[in-house]
Structure formats: structure tokens, C-alpha cells
Amino acid sequence: MTDGTTTAPAAEAGDTLTRLEQEGEIAADYLEGLLDIADLDGDIDMDVEADRAAVSIISDSGSRDLQKLVGRDGEVLEALQELTRLAVHRETGDRSRLMLDIAGYRAQKRAELSEIGAKAAAEAKSSGEPVKLKPMTPFERKVVHDAVKSAGLRSESEGEEPQRFVVVLPA
């Protein structure tokens, strides 16, 4: 936990990288406190990826304990990410787009979703018809959109949350 002070107020941290590094530090402090309370072992890794702070909780002793923090289909991970973003907001006064990963869950999910996007793009190219995918979270849709774009096609999201889904459009 933090003592309520920050190393550099967000208003003075004009440089985006510095602001994102600050977000990562605040998030790491918050998550370390959470791990202590839950009596779980884990190391915290911080980075900046695609204009957002990225924080990962990893474990050398296997990730079985950390799976509790991932939950079914990443539900607990999503909730912890929101709580961590709120902790950052409380310290900085700025909305955070911080991304949290636990035990490599998001990294693995990103690889699976990229493959789904690439397959859907290939199907749309060969059939000439739009390909509709199952409903996904905003994170999942973003990964699929990126994969479709890298395959040279366009995609869009349709529907209302939580039933929002990606449609891959043929060329």
C-alpha cells in the first residue's frame, strides 16, 4: 500500500513515459499490498506497452496460487485490473488505462485471440462473406481487430455489451 503521497504529481510529470511509469509504480505498490494480504507469492514486473502501463504478477513457484487471482475466464483478473486502475486514479487524479496480467493469462489469451482473428480474416478472404465471431470483452475484441488489420482486412464491433462481437469484413 502507499502512504498517500506520490513521487511526482501527475500535473508535473508532463512526459507521458514518466506518467505511465508512475502509474506502474503506484499499481505495483497496490498489488504488493494485495499479495501480502492474500498471503500469495508473486513478483511484479512493470513495463510500458502501446501508450499504457503494463503490470504483471508472475511466480517462480508455479502459478497455481496465482490462478486464484485470474479466476474463471479471467473474471477475477478483470476485477483486480479495475481496482488497480482505481487505486492509480486515487493517487494521480487521472484515469488509467493500465493493463494487468497475472501468471501469463493475458499473454496466452492474446496469442489465442490473434489466431482466431487471423483465421477469421482468412475465412473472410476466401469466402468473400463477412465473418461474425462470438461475443467478447473489449480487450478480446481489440486483440482480434489488431490481428485482422495485420492480415490486411477491416473489422468492426457490433451489438451491445456484454453481447458485443467482432465482424470481419471481406476486402
From TrEMBL:
Domain R3H: 107-171
Gene Ontology molecular functions: RNA binding
Pfam families assigned: R3H
SMART domains assigned: R3H
InterPro entries given in the database record: Jag_KH, KH_dom-like_a/b, KhpB, R3H_dom, R3H_dom_sf, R3H_KhpB
PROSITE patterns, per database record: R3H
Entry superkingdom: Bacteria
Protein name: SpoIIIJ-associated protein
Native source species: Streptomyces indicus
Source species taxonomy: Bacteria, Bacillati, Actinomycetota, Actinomycetes, Kitasatosporales
